[in-house]
Amino acid sequence: ENPERLARPEVQALTPYQSARRIVAAAGGRGDVWLNANESAESDDYALRNGRLNRYPDAQPAEVIARYAAYSGVSPESILATRGGDEGIDLLIRTFCTGGRDAVLQFPPTYGMYSVSAETANVRVVNLTTSPENGWTPDVKALEAALEKDPAIQVVFACSPNNPTGNLLSPEVVSGLINATRGRAILVLDEAYIEFSPDDTAVDRLERAPHLVIIRTLSKAFALAGIRCGFLIGSPAVIGMIRKVIAPYPIPAPVADIAEQALSDEGIARMKTRVLATLRRREELARALRALPGVLEVSPSASNFLLVRFAESARVFTGLWDRGIILRDQSRQPTLAGAIRITVGTDEENALLLAALTELLGEY
Ligand code: PMP
User: Fold this and answer.
1) DSSP-assigned letter for residue 327
2) Closest C-alpha to ligand 1, atom 10
3) Cβ(89)–Cβ(110) under 8 Å?
């Protein structure tokens, strides 16, 4: 009995990724306004063509790959379609790190799945914490020193725009990261939110950086978190290695069908329209939040969410939760005491949030 004791020790010890949807449901709570997962506030409609589902799908759906290659400006051999960016993260670790021996490096506060995937694989995590004083900019000198000191580091994860802080990496920092890792480790730039700041992609660096891999997704600006489709972009050599590790048929035919439509000219035009609307609502929300008592700081954001520091974040977070408004508490992340991450919602959702916050903060 107790079959869970048969699980690998690192899995028994693992703190898994927390999905608020499951926590709210388990607590029998209600969630009316979901501003916790950086999804698109608006949905898009797709007609599903019911093809021959008795057959396995194309392992890498050719038309989706061709369209994503055209959209991102690389060749199809440089692209691998994955089950969301999350599978991309996991594949990178499984391809380049040996459990019990190797390490990955990250710059907290950042996206949680780099460490969850590493810990699952018994891969050590080296943290170079960034600080709000310099806008959460990774320290390239500290990275050089860490790589020098710790030869087990195989993969370096950086995120731009970074979740949950919203800041971009400058071109100088990207150059620094590329040069520090060259010939030494795989450098991963997670661009899950890049459509909200499209001029800042590092995709043009790929040609001269064969060790660079860029993570992309349809979950955010493309409003398709529900289909679980993302991409890795890298040199054909690196993508070829990861291709060996990915499951045989990772992208279900209905997913490929919808992704293909989303990546048509019309789909991309709709995405860009949604992005502009999101940026407008983000600025309106940021302005309104800055005017509230008890809001200490709203960080500048290059993405579809805001990081907000409150004088009494625990009271704000639970007060909103009790009112059915679900946000993402970040207060336990390094350097983020008092911080809550808020996804930009629809005008209506943002108004509900601001009304509830005004009520709560008025109770001081
Ligand atoms: N990277 C970052 C920075 C993210 O915030 C997310 C979404 N939470 C992902 C990757 C993964 O998203 P998905 O698996 O939905 O593509």
Assistant:
1) -
2) 85
3) no
Please write the tens of the pLDDT for every residue from 83-104: 999 999 999 999 999 999 999 9
**Residues paired with residue 292 on neighbouring β-strands, in sequence order:** none
pLDDT in tens, 124-142: 999 999 999 999 999 999 9
**Ligand 1 geometric centre to CA of 21 (Å):** 16
190 CA to middle of ligand 1, Å?
Answer: 8
351 CA distance to ligand 1 middle (Å): 26
Helix (H) or strand (E) holding 151: none
Ligand 1 within 6 A of CB of 225: yes
- Computed from CA positions of residues 333, 336, 339, 340, in that sequence, does the dihedral angle turn out positive or negative? negative
Q: Are 122 and 99 in contact (CB under 8 A)?
A: yes
Ligand 1 mean position to 219 CA, how many Å? Answer: 7
Helix (H, G, I), strand (E, B) or coil at 344: coil
Question: From the CB of 160, is ligand 1 less than 6 Å away?
Answer: no
Which pLDDT score is estimated for 255? 96
195 CB less than 6 Å from ligand 1? Answer: no
Tell me whether 0.90 is exceeded by the ipTM: yes
Q: Is 189 helix (H, G, I), strand (E, B) or coil?
A: strand
- Could you give the residue ranges of the DSSP H alpha helices within the chain? 9-12, 20-26, 62-72, 84-96, 113-120, 140-149, 171-181, 236-245, 253-262, 265-290, 313-322, 347-361
The domains found in the chain, sorted by start residue, are 3-43+267-358 (3.90.1150.10), 62-263 (3.40.640.10)
∠ CA 338-342-346, nearest 5°, is 155
